[in-house]
């Protein structure tokens, strides 16, 4: 159930999705059964579209979970393409390693274990695409790193940015314990929407997804 889109639309869109590879489908079923927060089918189809169009060679993912989105994205990479994905949670890391190995993607997907806050400063530019799908309260802290690591002309995609629609509600309508995340995500969305280097579009699909294009100075018409 989506909190943002009416069910009849979700059901319709879900019904007309093409079937994925059985390995991908099995991961989906497993994640849903275990309540592991993998990307929604809408975001999956958006990623597939964007990857087909943008054709990245190098992808950085922040938030691996069981490796579902990494494995999905790897299917859209050219032969020499590489994915670096970060997670800090041993329970997830163990399963991601197993799935990546089972999919024979060890040479394509590198899993870095630890807090992204510590790992991001150690990474070197450039990535063609960054997929941000970790603790929402940290997106704002990760943003300067993402900007440094993303090549001009690259894409930053951030998932769960509307947090079940909660981010669009007034602060007073939010339970007190969620106000920090409300404030931080709003600030992240403001920053990516107004950053001079970024062209951003925020889509109310899935749990909300933000697409930011890092402008390339060579595209002289882009101010
Ligand atoms: N991208 C995955 C889902 C990721 S769920 C998919 O769609 O298949 C979010 C993951 O981010 C969790 O596994 C959590 O452990 C990890 N995470 C959250 N904050 C993190 C941080 N600061 N550093 C590293 N991993 C983090
Ligand atoms: Mg997500």
Describe this structure in words.
This protein has a single domain (7-215), classed as Rossmann fold (3-Layer(aba) Sandwich). 39% of the residues lie in helices and 20% in strands. The protein has eight helices and seven strands, in the order αααβαβαβαβαβαββ. It has helices spanning 7-15, 22-33, 41-54, 68-74, 90-102, 116-119, 139-149, 179-194; strands at 58-62, 82-87, 109-113, 127-132, 150-159, 198-203, 209-214. A seven-stranded mixed beta sheet has the order 3-2-1-4-5-7-6, with helices on both faces. The longest helix has 16 residues, at 179-194.
Question: Features of this protein?
Answer:
223 residues, alpha/beta, Rossmann fold, seven-stranded mixed β-sheet, 8 helices, binds S-adenosyl-L-homocysteine, binds magnesium ion
Write a brief caption for the model.
By secondary structure, this protein is α/β, with parallel strands linked by helices. The chain has 8 helices and 7 strands; from the N terminus they run H-H-H-E-H-E-H-E-H-E-H-E-H-E-E. The protein has a 7-stranded mixed beta sheet, sandwiched between helices.
């Amino acid at each position: 159930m989506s909190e943002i889109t009416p069910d009849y639309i979700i059901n319709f869109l879900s019904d007309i999705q093409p079937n994925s590879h059985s390995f991908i489908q099995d991961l989906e079923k497993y994640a849903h059964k275990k309540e592991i927060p993998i990307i929604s089918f809408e975001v999956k189809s958006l990623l597939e579209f964007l990857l087909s169009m943008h054709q990245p060679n190098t992808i950085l993912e922040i938030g691996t979970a069981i490796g579902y989105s990494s494995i999905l994205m790897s299917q859209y990479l050219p032969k020499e393409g590489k994915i670096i994905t970060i997670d800090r949670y041993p329970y997830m890391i163990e399963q991601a390693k197993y799935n990546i190995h089972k999919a024979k993607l060890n040479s394509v997907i590198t899993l870095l274990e630890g807090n992204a806050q510590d790992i991001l400063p150690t990474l070197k530019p450039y990535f063609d695409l960054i997929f941000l799908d970790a603790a929402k309260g940290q997106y704002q802290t990760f943003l300067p790193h993402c900007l440094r690591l993303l090549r001009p002309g690259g894409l930053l995609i951030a998932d769960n940015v509307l947090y079940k629609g909660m981010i669009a509600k007034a602060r007073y309508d939010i339970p007190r314990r969620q106000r920090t995340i409300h404030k931080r995500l709003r600030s992240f969305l403001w920053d990516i929407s107004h950053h001079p280097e970024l062209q951003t579009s925020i889509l109310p699909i899935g749990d909300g997804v933000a697409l930011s294009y890092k402008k390339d100075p060579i595209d002289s018409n882009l101010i």
